[in-house]
Structure formats: C-alpha cells, structure tokens
Amino acid sequence: MAFSSAIERLNKNVAQPLKESIDKQPDFIDDDIQKRLELLADDLEGLNIRADSMLSREKPIKLFSSQDDPGMIQELNRELDRIVMAFTGRGSISAEMEARAARRLAQTLVINGLPRAQARHDSDSRDGANPCFQGTRQSILQDISAWIDDPNGPPIFWLSGMAGIGKSTIAHTIAEQEDKKHRLGASFFFSRDEADRRNPHLVYPTIAFQLAGFDSSLKEPITQALEQDADVGHAMMQKQFEQLIAGPLEKFKGKAETIVFVLDALDECNPASGAIEILARWALGLPKISNQVGVMLKVLITSRPELHIHDQFNYSSLRLISQSFVLHDIEKSVVNADIQLFLMGRLADLAVLHRVAQPWPTVAEINSLASSSDNLFIFASTTVNFIGGARNGRSLQHRLDQSLRPDLSKRTSTFAQLDALYLRVLETAENDLEETLPNSTETFRLVLETIVLLLDPLPPASLAGLLSLHPDDILTSIQDLRSVLVIPINSDSAEPIRFFHPSFYDFITTPGRGSERFFIQTTDGHARLAKLCLKTMGTLLRRDPCAIANPWSRNLDVADLQARLDRAVPNHLRYSCRFFCSHISLCAPGDKGLEQLVDSFCELNLLMWLEMMSLLGNIDDAINSIQLLKTWCQKDSTVKKLTADLIHDAYRALLQFQSPLRLCAGHVYTTILSFSAECGLTEHYASQLHVPYVVRGQPPRWDAKLITTDTQRNVLALKFFPDGKRIAMGDDRGRISVWSSSTGAEIISTDASDTHVSACSLDISADGTRIASSMRSEDAVQLNVWDAITGSRIFGLGDLGTFQRDTFIAFLPCGQELLCWSTNGRFSRWDSITGRVLSSHELPVKDCYRISVSRGGSRIVTICNTGLKIWEVRGDGVVSPLQVDLPQVDLSQRDTPRDQGNPVCEMPFLIDQSLLLIADDPSAYSRQSPTPATLWDYQKGLQIKRMTFLGFPQCVTICQESKRMAITTRELPMQIWDIESGTLLAHCGGDASAVMHAAFSPTEMAVASVDNSGVLRTWDIGPIHSGSNSNASETDSHPCRSVSASRSGKNVVNTCSGTRVVLWNIAEQTPLNLDVPDPSHHVIMSADGLYFICATAKNTVLVPSGWALYKTEPLQPVYTWSFVSMGPSLCATFSPDSGRIAVTVPAENLYDQKIQVLDIHHRQILWEAGLKGSVRGIAFFPEGTSLAVVYKHGYEIFNALSGGGSESSADRKSGSEFGSDFILGGILPHADGTQFLLIDDSRCFMTASYLVDTNDPSQITKYTESSRVFQVIETHTGHEPVFLVHDEMGNLYKKGRDYREFLCWLPPAWRFMNSEVPAVWAGSYLILGFRNGEIGVINVDALSHN
Question: Where is this region: Disordered (predicted)?
Fold first, then answer.
C-alpha cells in the first residue's frame, strides 16, 4: 500500500469536510472543535517527525517508489490510519458543525426576541458621541483602569459630577477601551430624551443581549432562560436579573478573567425607583457571582449626584462594595488644562479643514475659551461644534469672535457661561436662517420647541408628519443647531433628532436661564403637542389597520404582524398613540381647543386607539395613559359629561379586560363591547360590536371592583404604598411581595422561608423605600426591614425572644422610628435606619387580648381580663397610664374566635388622639350574630356613636383622614362604614370569597382586599366620597347553585342559595321568582320547558324535603317525593318527550338508593328498582326506551318502559366495571345503536371522556383528552359528542373528537371551573348562573363556524 493513499484518506475524511464546513460557517469554530483540531495537529506533527527521520536515511526516493522496505511504509500507513480514525471517531466534524450552526441560529433567533434599547456605547442612537480627546482626562482614566485591573478592588465604581462635566465621555472611553481588550460584557447609556433608553425594564434584557454576543458560554444559558420563559424579558426586574444576568454569569466558562459593565447617566433612568433597583440588584448579585465563578465583575456607573442615587451609595450595602469619585472635585487647574488641550486640538482640525492661516486660534483665545468653560467639558464641546458649523474660514473667525464675546448678563449661576453660549448658538442659527429664508422664524421656533418637548425623539420624516411639514423643511430650519442637536444628514434617515446634551433642555425650559426670546413655556408647548397628536390620530387611526380580518386572531399568531405594522403605522402615529395623554397631563387646564379635540377623540377614535395599543404591545402604557386622561378630566370641570364618561368607561374596561387585550387586539370589538357593563362606552360604540353574542349578563353598571389578581399566596397582611401605585403583602411562607395596584402584576418578591408563618404585620415608610415586617412562626417572632424597591433585607431588629404572641409593627410619621408592640404587653421603639433599640417597656398587663397603638405612637390601648386601659407614651419612651372615664368591660368569660394563621381582630381601635372604637360586649362575639360597637371620646368620656357591624369582624382598617372604616368578616362582603355618622356606606363583595384583609389607598378613593384563597382585588370607593354609593354598593345576593334549560335553551330555571328558584324566558328576559325552602344543587328542566324538578332539604307544609316537580305555566308544584334524609347524591332526568321523569331516592335503609319513573301527565309511578351503588348520573336514551344509570365505577341500562315496582320487574342489562371515577356526560344516537358518554372526574376537574357502545358494553373507547379543561358543560344534540370547555385563561372552545374551535374569551365571573358557576348548553345558548343570582347567556351559534 502506498503512503500517498493514506494521505488521500486524510484529505477526504478530514481536510475536505473541514474546509467545506468552514466555508459554510467561516466564523464558527467553537472550543470543542478547536481542541480536536489541536490534537489532530499534534498527532500529524509527530507523524511528520517520524517520516522526516525516515527520509533522512539513504535512498529516500527508493523508499517511497519501490517495495524494498514495505514494513516501514506499512508502519507509517497504520499510524496515519490511527490518527484519522481517532479524529473521525469523535464524530463527524461536518455534521457537528452543521448541528452546532443550527443551534447557533436557533439561539440567535431566540435572543433576538429580547426587548432591548439601542443603548450600547457605540450604538446608532449615540451617533456623535466620542471618547475623551487624546491626552485629556488622563488621571481619572488611569484611576478607573487601575480599579478594573485590581483583583482586590470593589466591584462597583461610581463616577458622579454635575451636568456637562464630561461623565459620559469618560464612560464612553472606558467602554471603548475595554471592548478592545475583549472585556466589555455590556454597556447601557441612559438618556431621558429617549423612551427606551430611560426605561429601567429594558436594562437587563439589553445587557443580556450584549452578554450573549460577548461569550459563547453565556449565549446558551441565556437562550435556555428564554426558552423556559419566553416572557422573562417583560417580567419584573428582579426576575430579569436572576434569569438573564445572574444565572448565565454563574455558568460562565469563558476565557475572560474580567468582565466590565458600563452604566452611564443612571440619573436619567425614569422612574427613579428603577435606578435604585438597578443599584441594589447589582449590589446583591455581584459578590455572589464573582465568588461562585471566580471571574472579576466590574461595574462602572456614572450619574449626577442626585439624592436617590447618593443615598444608595452612602447608606445602603453599596457603600461596602463600591468606590466613589466626584468628578467636579478635581483640581480646576487640571480640568482647565485638559479643556485647553481639547480646544487646541479640535480647533486646529477646523483650521486645516477651512484652510485658515496658522496660528489659529491664538493661545490667548484658547485660554479665554477654557476659562469661560467653568470646567464644563460640555461648554468646550458645544463651542467647538458651534464654531465648526461655519460655512467658510471667514465665518469661522466670526463665530470664534462670538464665542469670545463676554457675557454681559452678569449672572453668577454655575451654568452662566454655558447659558450664554447656548443663547449665542440660538441667536446665530435663527438670524442666519432668516437671512437665507425670510419669514422662517415661526418654523424655526415650532420645530425647536417640538424637538425639546417630545417625550421620545423622532426622525426627520416622522417629525415632519407630526407637524405637517416637509422633511427637508425640518432639516433646513435647524441646520445651524448641530452644536446642540444631533441631526441626521438626510431627511429620510431613521435616526432621530435629539439633544447633544441634556443641559440644553434645562437651559431652554428654565425661567431666567436664557433670553425670553427662546424660553419655552412647557405647559403651552405640551398643549400644542397634545393637539398635534390628537389630530394625527383623528386622521390616521383605522379599524383593523393591519388587515387581520379575524378579530379573534391572537397578535402572536399573525406571522408578519411587525411587517404589517411597519407598513400601516407610521412613527408619528405610534408616538401620538403612546404619548398624547402624557402631553395632556403636562398642560394647564381650561384649553377649549384641546377639550374639543379630546371630545372628538373619545367619540370617534377611542376603540381604534385601544386596538392600536394592543397591536403595538403597549397595554401597560394604555392603562397609564387613560389614568392620566382620567385625572385631567377630574381637574378640568368644563369637560363634557359624555367625554368624561367615555374616559371613565375605557379606564374600567382596560383594567377588567387587560389580559385578553394583551393577546388579541380584536377583543376591543368583541369582548369589551360584549362583557362590559352597560355604560356610555358600550352604548356609544354599539354599532362597532363584531358579533352580538352576549344575550344576557352584562352588568347594569360598573361594579366597585377594579382589578382581580390571583396571588397564589395565603396572605396575612396587606398595605398600600404612600404613592398608591403599589401594594405590599406578607404571606405564610414568610415572603414580602409588592404588586401593582393598577395592573395587579407582581413587581418584586422576597425568597420564601422554610418556616411556616402564622401571623404577619407590616408597614411602609413615608418615602416608600422601606417595608417593616413582623412575622410570627411557631417558636419565634422575626422583625425585619426590607428594601421596597429590590426586596432585599436591610437588617433584622434585635433579639425578639420576649415577643411571644401577636406582634405588630409601624413606622412613625417621621420615618426615623419604628414601633413594635405585642399582645403580651411588650412595647418598643427602634431606629429604622440603624436597627438600634431606642426604648423598650413591658406594660403591666396580663393575658392581653387586644392592643392598639395610635397613628403617632403617643397612645396605647390594651384590653385584657382586668379591663381596658389607655397609656400615654412620652417623648423619652416612658409609658404611663391615663385616667379615662370609660365603662369597664368584663372579659372574663370571653371566647374570642380566632383563626389559625391570622392575627386577632384589631379591636379596640385607636382612631386618633381622642377617639376609641370598642365592642360593647366582646363576650357575645360570634361569627353569625351582629357585633355592636361604640365610638368613644376617651379624653372626655363621651359616647360619640353606636353602630352594629354585620358578622364578626375579621379585620378592621381605618381611614384616618376621612374617618372611613373597612370591616371584613368571614361570611359577608367587606363593609365600608362612616365612623362619624355611624352608617354603613357600602359593601364590596361581588364574586369574592371570605375577605381576610383590607387596606385603604392614600387618596382614600380605593380599597384593596385579599380573600382566603389569595385573590387580590381593588375597589373603587370614589363614589362614596362624592356622596353617591351607586358604584360601590354591592350586596352579595344569593348565588346560583344550579341551572337547567329546555332543549331550545329559551326557557331556563336556576336555584339560588336561600329560598329562591327563578324561571327565565330568554326572549323576554323576564324572571319569575319562586320561594322554595333550601333548594339544593339539583334542578332539571324538561325538554319542552313546561316542567322542572328541584330538590329541597327542608320540610315545609307546602313542599316537604325531597323532590318537587313543578309546572311552569301556571307555576305550581304537581308532584313531590318526600323522605326524611337527602341521603346519597340524588339525580333526576326527563324523557326526551317530557312525558316521564326518572329520579333516584333513598331506599328504606337510607344508605342505598332506588330509581323511580313517573308518568308526568297521569302523576303515576310506572316502576321502580333498587340500585347497587352511589349514582353519578342517569339519562334516557334518545328514543326514550332505555335508561342509563352510571355509578362511580360502573353502569346499568334499564328498559325505561317496563312496569312494576320491584327490582326484578326492571329489564336490567349486564353492566361493566371501570377503574376510575366517572360521571354521566350524555346519551347520543349512533349509526349502529346508541352510545353514552362518561366523563373522567377522578382528578377534581374533568379532563377525559369515554364512549360506551350499548351493543357491546364491555368496549370503552377514549373519546377526548385535554389538559387543563376545568369543566365539560354538556354534550350537544347529534351523532358525535361536542363539548363546550374553557381553559384556565378563560378561552372558551367548542371541542369535538378531532377539532377544537375557539369561540370567545370569558371574564372571570363567567368561568365555570370547578363548578363554582353552574352552566348548561342547550340549543343555541350557553347559560351560566352567577353569584348574584342572575344568569348569563351566550349565543354559541353566533360565534361558531362549524
């Protein structure tokens, strides 16, 4: 064998596939393939050495051209074969590279889906940004570089300084420097002028996107995080950081020893709380990640020294892991020298460009300009840009002379010289434009004002569209403002026009800083912009702008939605939709022109705007916008009533239907107009309803409930933040969580504890930055202070061994002190900043049942076996009893109801410094009886008011200012009381379970409640304060317990808890009430609607316990089955012709059942038979000759026509036994006989159905199976069973064997999961029974296409 053949094999099996793969993926050789190639190279090099050794012997040519030494050639061949096999044995390199390329492409597609901002240091949005001029800022740059390289240095460097001093330029330089060293993990340069670059929720997704490109070992875990949770990019910031930043970094396996992050202009992050969370999140995560991975993580942060950032670096854990440098503290001579160097170099370049004779400018001129800068680099940079805007060398000198002109205003502010420079720039630009284009001043001012006040910058064409100008006119009018604005070269550029530096905005909008000639009055300007936005929407908004056609299509399912939006929705329309309400909120009230445009918008464009916001994925922005518009209406008394009503209705609809609107824009014309309360919005836009499918069930008005969110927590405490925008909770897992009060979304949550918490108290500091909590577990009480922005624990409060019982905690109004008090009489004051104990006392009380502390902490009331006492707390913390004249309360026999896991009811309750609310006779407390109470002025010993609460108070919440009180009980809806008048104002209940906790909002216009299942609700009690409680009054009517209908669905009967049975005629919508003592869950109507049967559990003269058969016209009982006990579950069914009814009743021994068949017309029992088990359903076959009885594990079939009164007289067919828990779903005709349907009910919700053929009962066929189907309504008439089902999101489907058709979205009150809402499908109608005793009706045929 020739050695050359082995070489050919090496080329064929290794070299050629490798070349082809690299040609396809030239930039993709990962670490594993690289190692394999290195091993191959080492082996080949060894073989080459051996071959060279052989070739160096005598007769080398003969060696390879003859067979004189075959053994040597064979040895080389074998060695080469071994190398080739060893390499290829590890896998086909081409296949591996193709597979990895496919995975890489998939990763790219996933990561490209991350929402992100164009905020990288070298992004297009920062066009014009430059690093430090060579030779300047050397000292600070060296300090930052040394900090990056120092393994013992802190992970965070904070560079602070006043506006214009050069922070961003330094940050840009460091980012560029570290990028060249391949150490820049990510950079984010904030800008208050751009919505995305000031949005804190885009910071971590943007950083994650950059990290994925920084190192391949980070790309895979980031991709996995997105694959596991596709919406993590839109999640709360805590979750974003953990899954997109911390998690991937902990898996880092790259070569870099240092990863640098640069966050510039953090003070421009909006809201400020976002900046605080960013800081705290890095402070918590960096040490942990660095220790775990062994790589240095360095974060450079720059900002102005704003208070909220300054406090984080000086008073939080950040101070322990950060290094700070104040840029404006550098010696002025050093900064001045740097500015001189910068001016000298940049102006020299201009001189060369314009062919100006040297030397230019002179040293004296350079020194004069540097001296005027006041150490602000932005002055020097703007000066250069201003001079550089000259068109020739002559005007260059003219502009230099203008820059050297002294400021004659004699202002002494920090920015006096900068202000004078900005003024010169504006004067020059306007004068030059007027010389070139006379009468252009108005356009200049219009364009400039618009650019300054835009809430998100626009490119020239979009700005022209908003202003109704030509794009070229836009650029022409501001061509000489390039020293203060970043302006694209071409009018068709997609790059926005924006400020060169934010100090220009401050100058032109702050009174007194510039000339009145250019001062922009922001309120007037925002009014003009609001009008422009409203006019734009009035002209361009269209229904179904993307031509989707099907209003039920989810946005996500429209494959080319983004392309359609790009074609149909210009940027200035998007801007108008997003920001018009913000502009309105920033202008003064009383603008008639603006009011007229808002009227027109509400009457013509409101629904189209909601549709557009859904398509753009901006529902959260829509909620915030409509809130701003609603507030504006409340401030402006001249707004039309129709306009105010439409805005209010849109606000309520957005809150109620935000979930479906996030998924599908068409819900605007289907769900909102169908399920909203009967209001101005549904009436005004009735003609735009896509399909009128809701026949009955629209509420007559908006109820008090604003939002409903399932927190999936057992909540023990609830509190509004001072801003009213957030709600804090504590739960039985020891978690403190924060939720949005407007959307119900979770914002942050602390980690769960391994210890079960049985009681919790919490309070929030006045500035909303800290949460104090007291949590009692089995053997201890823990008091902690938490960061309300990040959820991190700041510190715990001392040894709490003395706190053995329920312990409460509260901030004093000053915010510097905390009060802790316990029902064992322990009372302490703490420093809320340091956690130091200021004073501690133990009140001389034993067996204390109640303890309450006044808002200011100066009064304490205790109630125990020895009576009631009030204590005064002096400034030094000393506690002494007060002499008060109140009746003594005997509590010796008291048995207070308490629930495991909840603090005792806070009664007595100190309302203020003199008022005390106390129950008259606490020993008489019970959950069923009313609770009498008295309001006392304990300082005067006077009784103010008496009141009687309904039920036993579970929680009492006082509204301090308006003297309102919310009382929650076990059985009844939450009660809102007026303390001063002693009157009950309203109930807030509706579909809520037992409300456990409540809290008033700071404005006292809303109440938050959480029930025993963890559902958070907020309630609008604004109408109470305005003197009308029409919106807030909600009595929890007797809920529907069962519902049935005729075959056509037009006649309905339902039972309610209490004594109500209600008959409905769908066409006439006129209910007829019947009193039936304690009707059970069983009610069935005949197919013709002439009869119904219900069961009752109480004996009366008219209707005994048992079954009662009624005729509907006239309404009267016609037959009854009486028995002592209801016994096992009972069933009943009418024959298809409505002439017979079969019922199950208790047998003689009460533990068994029997079946009886009644001839309805002759009121005669035709036959009866004993049954062999607990019945789960009975039904006649369609022809009426057979009757199926389904047991828990089997079934029987009877001849429905056989007479006789004994078991033997029934024609019983053989049955079949099952191994699961079934209920009867229905009977269906079949081509070869008859089938009946069994529904699997073994897992609490129904997930599968089975068909049993009567010709061969042993054959059981699975018909359907679907995960997360909560309830099957009923089969419909036909040869194939068809279900109505809904998923956990409320999506209603018609489901058959081989298909599932979406019908509509159901609001929570309409969802029949777990049988909480009884429902039936009859004829064309889906009929549901509500908790308020009403019914809802949906025309299924109007929705169905099959």
Answer: 1027-1046
Query: Model confidence over 1248-1258: pLDDT tens digits?
Result: 566 666 566 55
d(C-alpha 136, C-alpha 180), whole Å: 19
Could you tell me if 911 and 960 are in contact, meaning their C-beta atoms sit under 8 angstroms apart? Answer: yes
Q: Dihedral sign for Cα 825, 830, 836, 841, please.
A: negative
Q: For residue 1183, give the DSSP letter.
A: T
Question: pLDDT above 90 covers what percent of the chain?
Answer: 28
User: Cα-flanking dihedrals φ and ψ of residue 100, to 5°?
Assistant: -70, -30
- What is the rounded distance in angstroms from the CA atom of residue 1257 to the CA atom of residue 873? 81
Residue 1296's CB: how many other CB atoms inside 10 A?
17
Of 1336, 1311, 1339, 1343, the residue nearest 1325 (C-alpha) = 1339
What pLDDT, on a 0 to 100 scale, did the predictor assign at position 1057? 73
User: How many Å from the N-terminal Cα to the C-terminal Cα in the chain?
Assistant: 74
- Residues with Cβ within 8 Å of 1181's Cβ and at least 6 positions away in sequence, in order, are 1187, 1188, 1200, 1227, 1234, 1236, 1254
3-state secondary structure 1139-1162: CEEEEEEECCCCCCEEEEEEECCC
Q: Scanning the structure block, which residue is given the tokens 């809520």?
A: 992
**Token representation of residue 54:** 């052989």
pLDDT in tens, 51-79: 666 655 554 444 444 444 566 666 767 77
- pLDDT bucket at 616, cuts 50 / 70 / 90: very high
Strand 156-160 to 296-303 pairing: parallel
Residue of 53, 50, 39, 40 whose CA lies nearest to 75: 50
In this structure, which long-range contacts are made by residues 15-21, counting pairs with CB atoms below 8 Å and at least 24 apart in sequence? 17/92, 17/93, 17/94, 18/93, 18/94, 20/94, 21/93, 21/94, 21/97, 21/98
Q: Which residue has the higher pLDDT, 1334 or 611?
A: 611
- SS3 at position 418: helix
- C-beta separation of 762 from 719 below 8 A: yes
DSSP string, 427-487: HHHHHHHHHHSTT-HHHHHHHHHHHHH-SS---HHHHHHHHT--HHHHHHHTGGGTTTEE-
How far, rounded to the nearest angstrom, does the alpha carbon of residue 218 sit from its chain's CA centroid? 27
**Can you tell me whether residue 434 is helix, strand or coil?**
helix
| pLDDT at position 982 over 50 | yes
Angstrom distance (rounded) from CA 227 to CA 500: 39
Instruction: Identify the CA nearest to 976 among candidates 956, 954, 952.
Output: 956
Reference 1171, options 1151, 1200, 1201, 1199; nearest CA is: 1151
Report whether 988 contacts 707 (CB < 8 A): no
Contacts of 1060 (CB under 8 A, 6+ apart): 1038, 1073, 1074, 1075, 1076, 1079, 1333
Distance CA 1173, CA 1195 (A): 10
Average pLDDT over residues 1047-1071: 82
| 651 membership: H or E segment, kind and range | helix 641-663
What Cα–Cα distance (Å) separates residue 1074 from each residue in 102, 463, 581, 1097? 69, 67, 52, 16
Contact (Cβ atoms closer than 8 angstroms) between residue 1281 and residue 1334: no
The partner residues of 785 in beta bridges, in order of sequence, read 772, 795
Q: Give me 297's structure tokens.
A: 């993580």
Single-letter amino acid, residue 1288: E
Q: How many CB atoms lie within 10 A of CB 1128?
A: 17
Q: Write the burial class of residue 1112 (CB in 10 Å: 0-12 exposed, 13-18 middle, 19+ buried).
A: buried
Q: How many residues does the chain have?
A: 1346
Tokens of 626: 């409509």
Report which secondary-structure segment, H or E, holds 975. strand 974-978
Token pair recorded at residue 908: 């007595």
For residue range 472-494, list pLDDT tens digits in order.
999 999 988 988 888 888 888 88
Residue 528, helix vs strand vs coil: helix
pLDDT for the residue numbered 1210 = 31
Q: In the structure encoding, which two tokens stand for residue 1053, read together?
A: 């009967």
Q: What are phi and psi of 1165, to 5 degrees?
A: -70, 120
Tokens of 64: 């390879």
Give 1096-1134 pLDDT, tens digit per residue.
Answer: 766 555 556 788 899 998 888 899 888 766 555 678 999
